[in-house]
TrEMBL record:
Keywords: Hydrolase, Membrane, Protease, Transmembrane, Transmembrane helix. Its main location: membrane. Belongs to the band 7/mec-2 family. HflC subfamily. Pfam families: Band_7. GO terms for biological process: proteolysis. One of its GO terms (cellular component) is membrane. NCBIfam families: hflC (TIGR01932). GO terms for molecular function: peptidase activity. This is Protein HflC. It is a single-pass membrane protein. It comes from Cyclobacterium lianum. HflC and HflK could regulate a protease.
């Protein structure tokens, strides 16, 4: 009796094990295929829910149903106009046919390796077929001018294709090569592009030279404006000084005339006053005109000669 119970228990355990191996559950993020002795059987299981297989002889291969990421390696690629640049790319892809995917690629690791070959190759072909300007620009819009000096910078040439169109070309050609792999590339983008070190140094030197040229232009304009301001200042100063001198002379002339009139009215009362006035004016003129080293030549009929003669 006890022996039969043990056998019963063993049979129940084996039944539970087989039942567990015959049932699997798919969630919304997964899809699967069933293999028997390593070969796929039946249709792919893509709907979420409970599924059944034959235990022991059948196994389940699960694949991701979500969008997957591909990140390309940074490669040095020559453009059509013989300029070497580093190109870094990325893409998004999905498994559209899990059965074909399992037959051709087996797993996601192999798929990533195959996408490396396809996308890197198409990227090289696209870069080598277009000029650098087409790769870095998307439209022919005019650059936005935020400073006056930017108007004098070199005008960019028009592009024929553009960056977005090149990305679309790579995406289209890559999907043509992956159509029999059970995958579809959803999006492809250039993540980053940069010159190689040698070319980048030349670009930096050109940028520095251009900025130095603009700085020299600013300095030249500033010096010209400074000279103009200095000239205006000197002209205005000379004009002010000339006007001030003229006014001073006019004031001095009017003062002399008034003083002369006052002297004349004061000394014109009699002959002695007139003689005294003439004498003082002559002495004043003599004081302002002579010094120790001055030789004076006067006529014999001048008032000064008469005064000097009378003093002797």
């Amino acid at each position: 009796m006890q022996k039969s119970k043990v056998i019963y228990i063993i049979l129940v355990v084996l039944g539970l094990i087989l039942l567990g191996q015959s049932v699997f559950i798919l969630d919304e993020t997964e899809q699967a295929i069933v293999t028997q002795f390593g070969k796929p059987v039946g249709e792919p299981r893509t709907d979420p829910g409970v599924n059944f297989v034959i235990p022991i002889i059948q196994k389940v291969q699960f694949f991701d149903k979500r969008y997957l990421e591909w990140d390309g390696d940074k490669n040095q690629v020559p453009t059509k106009d013989k300029k070497f640049i580093f190109v870094d790319t990325y893409a998004r892809w999905e498994i559209t046919d899990p059965l074909q995917f399992f037959i051709r690629l087996r797993d996601e690791r192999s798929a990533q390796s195959r996408l490396d070959d396809i996308l890197d190759g198409e990227t090289r072909n696209a870069i080598a077929s277009h000029d650098l300007l087409d790769i870095v620009r998307s439209t022919n819009r005019d650059p936005e001018v935020t400073e006056d000096f930017m108007e004098e910078l070199e005008v960019l040439e028009d592009i024929e294709v553009g960056r977005e169109a090149i990305e679309e070309i790579v995406l289209q050609k890559a999907n043509e090569r992956t159509s029999d792999l059970g995958v579809r590339i959803l999006d492809f983008r250039f993540k980053r592009m940069n010159y190689v070190d040698e070319v980048r140094d030349r670009v930096y030197d050109r940028m520095i030279s251009e900025r130095n040229r603009i700085a020299d232009q600013f300095r030249s304009e500033g010096q010209g404006e400074a000279r103009k301001i200095q000239g205006d200042k000197e002209r205005d100063l000379a004009q002010i000084q000339s006007e001030a001198k003229r006014q001073a002379e006019e004031i001095r002339g009017r003062a002399d005339a008034e003083a002369t009139a006052i002297y004349a009215s004061a000394y014109n009362k009699n002959q002695q006053s007139i003689a005294l006035y003439r004498f003082l004016r002559s002495m004043e003129a003599l004081e302002n005109s002579l010094d120790e080293k001055t030789n004076l030549v006067i006529s014999s009929d001048s008032d000064l000669f008469q005064y000097l003669k009378e003093m002797q």
